[in-house]
């Protein structure tokens, strides 16, 4: 005999199937580490992988500074993802459209429906600001990089151009010089925005600076071979032969998703957290590049994710008791 369930029962069952102890928004190294730890704590866990922004790690062709691993960023992410799945975390490849708190639970609204959680971990990362010039996207991983500490090793003994004038750009230029690159810095203005101490170190190392200039195009065949530069004062174009272009014009944290929750952010858009990765909203934690971590590396993002998961575990345990 066929049993016909009414709409209320069906809706309630679907709701129960979409309920988790912890939901993690983001599937980069911070989010996946949080998923591994959360699942191992015995919490029902789901992590959401969104299309944009993609994890910056997935764009990194080679990883050599993550303990115990060498390979591409994509390979490392896949290993982390499979480990999280092995421990029971669920993977949702859905764009999260809205987060809100209703009746003591968090609602995660996606393109496919609504999920519910006792605790949220935000690990949406950040997106390196792009120049938006021809050749930039085409040569990512083939001479164009947004991470000097990740990729600088491959350009030892070669000519590279660092684009930017802030602390990150100057620090990248100094680092690349230290490891043996032939470095030039280009900045759109006639003075740098970096801290005075960093500027002094840059100039003490005789790193040349191309002032009042911007990159118009990045060119090459199979890899980067040259950049076309425009002097904003004289309006003259010139060509600089280089093997690599390191773009350091800022990072835009992907944190707009937390606005409806009332999560505090700083003036740059980074989520404010304490040493336990707790936000100002009870039950909401954040990890990785969406927070103002001074060293934006895979290993530090993983550390953030582990701490956030531990804090979420303590919170959920308290809620259940």
UniProtKB/TrEMBL annotation:
- Give an example GO molecular function: thioredoxin-disulfide reductase (NADPH) activity
Say if the entry is tagged with keyword Flavoprotein: yes
Pfam families in the cross-refs: Pyr_redox_2 (PF07992)
| Highest taxon, organism lineage | Archaea
Q: Where is the FAD/NAD(P)-binding domain?
A: 20-305
**InterPro entries per the record?**
FAD/NAD-bd_sf, FAD/NAD-binding_dom, Ferredoxin-NADP_redctase_2, Pyr_nucl-diS_OxRdtase_2_AS, Thioredox_Rdtase
A cellular component annotation (GO) from this entry: cytoplasm
Enzyme class, first EC level, given as a word: oxidoreductase
Q: Recite the UniProt keywords alphabetically.
A: Disulfide bond, FAD, Flavoprotein, Oxidoreductase, Redox-active center
Protein EC: 1.8.1.9
Gene Ontology biological-process entries: removal of superoxide radicals
Q: PANTHER family under this entry?
A: THIOREDOXIN REDUCTASE 1-RELATED-RELATED
In Swiss-Prot or TrEMBL terms, this protein is called Thioredoxin-disulfide reductase
């Amino acid at each position: 005999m066929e049993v016909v369930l009414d709409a209320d029962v069906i809706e309630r069952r679907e709701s129960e199937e979409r309920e988790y102890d912890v939901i993690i928004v983001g599937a980069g190294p911070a989010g996946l580490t949080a998923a591994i730890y959360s699942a191992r704590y015995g919490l029902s866990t789901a992590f959401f992988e969104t299309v944009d922004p993609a994890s910056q790690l997935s764009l990194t062709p080679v990883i050599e500074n993550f303990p115990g691993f060498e390979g591409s960023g994509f390979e490392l992410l896949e290993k982390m993802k499979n480990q999280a799945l092995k421990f029971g975390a669920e993977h949702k490849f859905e764009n999260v459209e809205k987060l809100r708190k209703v009746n003591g639970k968090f609602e995660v609204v996606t393109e496919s429906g609504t999920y519910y959680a006792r605790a949220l971990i935000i690990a949406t990362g950040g997106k390196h600001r792009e120049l938006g010039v021809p050749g930039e996207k085409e040569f990512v991983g083939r001479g164009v990089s947004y991470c000097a500490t990740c990729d600088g090793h491959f350009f030892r003994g070669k000519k590279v151009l660092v684009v930017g004038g802030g602390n990150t750009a100057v620090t990248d230029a100094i680092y690349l010089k230290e490891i043996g690159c032939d470095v030039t810095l280009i900045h759109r203005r006639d003075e740098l925005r970096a801290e005075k101490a960093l500027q002094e170190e840059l100039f003490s190392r005789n790193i040349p600076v191309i002032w009042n200039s911007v990159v118009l195009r990045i060119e090459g065949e199979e890899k980067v071979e040259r950049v076309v530069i425009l002097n904003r004062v004289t309006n003259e174009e010139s060509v600089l032969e280089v093997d690599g272009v390191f773009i350091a014009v800022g990072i835009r944290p992907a944190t707009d998703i937390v606005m409806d929750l009332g999560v505090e952010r700083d003036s740059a858009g980074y989520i404010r957290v304490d040493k336990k990765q707790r936000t100002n909203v009870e039950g909401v934690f954040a990890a990785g590049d969406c927070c103002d971590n001074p060293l934006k590396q895979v290993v530090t993002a993983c550390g953030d994710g582990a701490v956030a998961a531990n804090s979420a575990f303590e919170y959920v345990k308290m809620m259940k008791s």
